[in-house]
Design goal:
Blueprint lengths: L8 H5 L18 E3 L9 E5 L1 H7 L3 H5 L1 H8 L10 E3 L2 E4 L2 E5 L5 E8 L5 E7 L16 H17 L5 E14 L8 E12 L5 H9 L3 H15 L11 H26 L1 E2 L21 E2 L24 H16 L7 H26 L6 H16 L4 H8 L19 H23 L5 H11 L7 H12 L4 H10 L34
Bound molecules: adenosine monophosphate and magnesium ion.
The site of magnesium ion (MG) has 3 residues, from loops.
Length: about 525
Amino acid sequence: MPALRFDNAFVRDLPADPSTAPGTRQVRGALYSRVMPTPVSAPRLVAHSREVAAMLGLDEADVADPAFARVFGGNALMDGMEPYAANYGGHQFGHWAGQLGDGRAIGLGEVVTAPGQRWELQLKGAGPTPYSRTADGRAVLRSSVREFLCSEAMHHLGVPTTRALSLVATGDAVVRDMFYDGNPEAEPGAVVCRVAPSFIRFGNFELPASRDDIPLLERLIDFTIARDFPDLPAAPGEDRVEYRARWFAEVCERTARMVADWMRVGFVHGVMNTDNMSILGLTIDYGPYGWVDNYDLEWTPNTTDAQGRRYRFGNQPQIAYWNLSRLGAALSPVFPGPEHLEAGLKRYVDVFVETDRRHTAAKLGLRECRDEDLELMDALRGLLQEHEVDMTIFFRALADVDPAAPSMAPLPDAFYDDAKRHHAEPALTDWLARHAARVREDAWTPAERRACMQATNPKYVLRNYLAQQAIERATQGDDAGIHELLEVLRRPYDDQPGREPFAGRRPDWARHRAGCSMLSCSS
Ligand code: AMP
Ligand code: MG
């Protein structure tokens, strides 16, 4: 293994929990606890991302070295690693939950690469920490496969996200009651190494604020701005309040872009608690997330959310706003009044609306978004929802509809139900005619329009049933399904002849199956 250069600013510059005793505890006055990963029986590398390895300065031979699986399974440290678990709180399902912290994530350190980028490495499932509460600190293979694949899929889709370097099977069993019905079962365990410039969450700020520890809050704010926002330097003569206000607005802006992208590709996070919101506006904590098959703004993949549907597809923009308001409330002690925070929240709304307009135009193959185009999109959403139409297939195939002679001919694969397709025909044909008329008003060549649509409407997304199939094969000892999927998802906007089965609609068997249409939080 080559030597990576570590510069562990988080543990160096911020106050640590003085205790390193085992066991869980409330940790006050400190932003993290030092803790070692707990070794596993037989670490085995199941998959890795070659892009992330290269980004960190690791080549394929380094990854193949048995030392790699030892380090990223939690059995060894590289020189310069200083493991820790972060201390944070959060609002879960709308309620303040107090201290949460990294209960099964362990930060290893911050790699600084040759081009000068900083990347935090973090193991998920590496054993108990002071924040594990009543749980075991471990993760099952099924949820680890999902986190590994989706992190990389989102990156290749151009959606801001934490990355995944590796997926290591531990050789140890983990017991989970997947359906919370009193039937716990032993499942294979795994560890994912996540990679991001920062793993700081909204909840990191909320916890010291909730305890009225304003000096600690201010240290974290100043640290975060300095380390994680190098492109946001203080303007000459700018006072501290103005600078921090610009930073909050930047967080709001990034969050808006991220959520607008989720809506564009049909991603539903499933657990948008404030401890799962990255200060960098990255998609983080892939748990019971899901991908929309038939377009449905009401759908939530998370069984725990089935009652209230707080985290349903169509509610994500509102929830992100609510979460930013909670962050704003936590930051309010360092602002003299509410104006600065209100301005940040307004930035969220403005950037979301503007980005959503851009996406609307691009998805429909229009050069710009006029106000009437928003109505056109709304009308389409209504039709897709009512007639059970596959979101990804529909938008991808829309580029094949001829504006000179619009018809439903390119769209048969987008329907889940023949009767519904039949029923949809008059209204959808009418909509396609309206859309074609609008397209003809633009001065784009067909090739330009098609290129724009295909760069915005992916062909390949990580449909829930695809992930589930790869998981079932991996559970039987066949990792190839994970590798195949990763390969396909590296180029989601390319046609990839021969790989069409990965772009098909959800099969009937997957409609109500666990792991395919609904996901448990148990992971
Ligand atoms: P999540 O819903 O995954 O964001 O987790 C919420 C909180 O529960 C976080 O503090 C996690 O670290 C903690 N947690 C989740 N699963 C486990 C586990 N298996 N062991 C320890 N802590 C966990
Ligand atoms: Mg979490």
